[in-house]
Amino acid sequence: MKIVIMGGGKVGWNLARIMLERRHEVHLIERDKQRCEKLADDLDAVVFRGDGSNVNVLEAAETKDTDVFMAVAGQDQDNLVAAQLAQNYFHAKKVIVRANDPRNIETFRVLGIQNTVSSTDIISKLIEQEANLEHMHLIATLNKGKAGICSILLPENSVLDGVALKDIVFPKGSLLISLIRGGELTIPNGSTVLQTGDELVAVSEENSQRSLVKLLGDVKK
After folding, report:
1. Distance (Å, rounded) from C-alpha 188 to C-alpha 200?
2. In what order do the strands lie in the sheet with 2-6?
3. Residue 138 pairs with which residues in a beta bridge?
4. 65-95 pLDDT, tens digit each
5. 23, 48, 78, 107: which sits with the fewest CB atoms below 10 Å from its CB?
6. Quick one: angle between helices 33-42 and 10-21, nearest 10?
7. How many angstroms separate the Cα of 193 from the Cα of each of 26, 80, 190?
8. What residues contact residue 50 under an 8 Å CB cut-off, 6+ apart?
9. What does CATH list as the number for 2-117?
């Protein structure tokens, strides 16, 4: 798979390194001369010096029909222009853009760049979810934060101790995918009977997580 990365900062450097380790062909665009020299020394990637929002530079980097184009420079306006050119002019098969300012995410999407990500936005959502759902550990987010994989420990005196899964009504948008008991992981089914101390791992939509925590964290009075 051929990948063109626009932006040779820390994000671009790490993305290139990871993609190269996975044996993909990587072309890297960076405008700073000294940074280009370092990238060329550090990575087995083809490095192009120039402005990634310039048509000629993108053409030289073989952006046309590339499998993936990633715009991860430090300036959102540069990322947006480069992404639009890669998508609409060079017909890259997949375009991914970094929004340094999460307030720009919706603007990027309105302008046609759907695969827009912001590390600031992702981290803030993780912090909010961890703070608001103290009994739940969020393992990973899915679908741009609209759902998550979470882990919940069944408390002592749980009202669900000794109850089979088939007799529990889970919130809509939630699915139990694994159970860890005594260090052993199992895939539960309807006949699985819960016990205090079980660690339950579930996939849950964001608006169902509070209900799921309430259900699994409920204890006998």
Report:
1. 10
2. 46-49, 25-30, 2-6, 68-71, 95-98, 116-117
3. 150
4. 999 999 999 899 999 999 999 999 999 999 9
5. 23
6. 20
7. 50, 52, 8
8. 29, 31, 56, 57, 60
9. 3.40.50.720
Calpha distance 6→82 (Å, rounded): 8
- Domain range summary for the chain, segments of one domain joined by +: 2-117, 122-217
Tell me the pairing of strands 199-205 and 147-153.
antiparallel
Cα separations in angstroms, 179 against 100, 106, 185, 215: 38, 37, 6, 16
CATH number for the domain running over 122-217: 3.30.70.1450
Q: Are strands 184-186 and 174-181 parallel, antiparallel or unpaired?
A: antiparallel
Q: pLDDT digit string (tens) for 148-206?
A: 888 888 888 889 999 999 999 999 999 999 999 988 899 999 999 999 999 999 998 88
Q: How far apart are CA 97 and CA 110, in angstroms?
A: 13
Determine which helix (DSSP H) or strand (DSSP E) holds 16, and give its type and residue range.
Answer: helix 10-21
- Identical fold, 2-117 and 122-217: no
